[in-house]
Specification:
41% of the residues lie in helices and 15% in strands. It is built from eight helices and five strands; from the N terminus they run ααααααββαβαββ.
């Protein structure tokens, strides 16, 4: 038996509006409706999109950290729709980040820390990242190397430099977050920095900083003359 799905009048359908007026003329909810694609027997895709935005105060920025579980709690959103929405949000983040990175001064610890602050300061466990740079401090790529516990993450020189060698990096900045909000380095942070620095000297990829992200604050090994 064919499932009854609520449909909008043709003139109000986001697909048709996009074709006639262009994607830049669609509202946030209409863009979401296109991602969601189908509704239920009681709600159109546009109704579901509006409900998602309403739960986040109609502010797209608030969707930055929405979880799979939160989306699944919304009537009409199943696993597939939740994954589609999260994928679209992540793609938007990456596009924004790629554009912003072109203007970023990677020789400035404060600038780099602020760039990654919102991504890392909300994490509940430690994430260890590496930023690979060319000889002029332009970003080639960044990668999450490992994910650990609330107060510990494991990253070896091999983990860091395997990717650096692949992309012909000349320099690298490593960083991780402290979920406690206090960016002060631990003994392990210092030991990891030393081992990665020494390995980089041998491989010809210079470690220029290790930045620890706290809650709206950071610690830079370079600024504190450890590097």
């Amino acid at each position: 038996m064919k499932k009854n799905i609520k449909e909008l009048p043709k003139k109000d359908r986001p697909y048709e509006k996009c074709m006639e007026f262009g994607v830049d003329n669609l509202s946030d909810s209409e863009l979401f409706a296109i991602i969601i694609r189908t509704g239920t027997n009681s709600q159109s895709a546009l109704d579901i999109a509006r409900e998602i935005l309403k739960k986040h105060n109609d502010d797209l920025y608030n969707l930055n950290n929405v979880s799979f579980e939160e989306l699944m709690m919304i009537d009409g959103v199943g696993q597939v729709k939740a994954i589609q929405i999260l994928s679209a949000i992540e793609l938007g983040k990456r596009l924004s980040k790629a554009e912003a990175s072109k203007q970023l001064d990677f020789s400035s610890a404060s600038t780099v820390a602020q760039y990654y602050m919102e991504e890392l300061r909300h994490k509940k466990v430690e994430y260890f990242k590496a930023c690979y740079l060319d000889c002029k401090n332009n970003l080639i790529k960044d990668r999450t190397i490992s994910k650990g516990t609330i107060n510990f993450t494991i990253a070896t020189p091999r983990d860091v430099f395997a990717e650096g060698l692949k992309c012909n990096a000349s320099k690298v900045i490593i960083m991780h977050n402290h979920p406690s909000g206090n960016p002060a380095p631990s003994d392990n942070d210092i030991n990891v920095t030393t081992s990665i620095y020494e390995a980089g000297e041998l491989l010809g990829i210079k470690l220029i900083d290790h930045i620890i992200i706290g809650d709206k604050c950071y610690y830079s090994f370079s600024e504190n003359n450890y590097l």
